Amino acid sequence: MNSSGNSLVVVPRGCSLVQRQYYSSWSRVSPISTANEPFLSTLRKKGGKNAKPSKDAEEEEAPQELDLEKPKADMEAVVQELKEQLSIYKIGRADTQLLETVHVVQNKKSVPISSVAQLNVKDGSTLAVTVFDPKLQKDVSNAIRDADLDFEPTISGNLILVAIPKPTKKFKSKIIKKAAEQTEKARVQIRNIRRVTVDAMKQLKYTKDESIALDKQIQKLHDEAIKKLEAILKQIQ
Known about the structure:
Layout: H1 17-24, E1 40-42, H2 55-59, E2 64-66, H3 69-86, E3 103-106, E4 109-112, E5 117-123, E6 126-131, H4 137-145, E7 152-156, E8 159-163, H5 169-202, H6 208-236
Antiparallel strand pairs: 1-2, 3-4, 5-6, 6-8, 7-8
Helix pairs in contact: 3-5, 3-6, 5-6
InterPro entries: Ribosome_recyc_fac, Ribosome_recyc_fac_dom, RRF_sf
GO molecular function: ribosomal large subunit binding
GO cellular component, one term: mitochondrion
């Protein structure tokens, strides 16, 4: 406990950056729940609001409990993000986000295409790419062609025109592959949120039965989020 009366939390070795951020927030315990304390809420001491605390009670740290609303909200945010990401895969329809995965080599570094060019929709089936530095125009065109999306860009003056292929079996297969990769990344995020939540639970003094019950609730949140991800991917497939 430090000079201000707050409890200090020792962060275990080997923790990820996310876990350290969660653990560090526990060093401040207030008598009510706050949004800045991930997964944790505090309980008032027994005796009611009119009870007069003893000197020892005032120095005693308020008990903590796991707040499952935070991981639930975080998981839902991952689901919504994937839903927005996969909404661009309208087969045969032009959308600048179709090129977001394209990277271009600039000054020996791989950078997103959006950092070296402006992307626009020319019409319902064509994208127009304006490269900021004309010297990079050919490199950008090649990067689009090599992005494994079946795009065949053509240079027209200061523009690179990208015709979006009609929904052939081959093109749809590539789109589904990209969607599956993004879905897998979302699954990893959900699993990480579950792991961090379980780690937070282990830092608190729960009985064996309480821990088992909480672990089941955390697993339920995890499973429900994964099912939502699978449903979103299925719509693309």
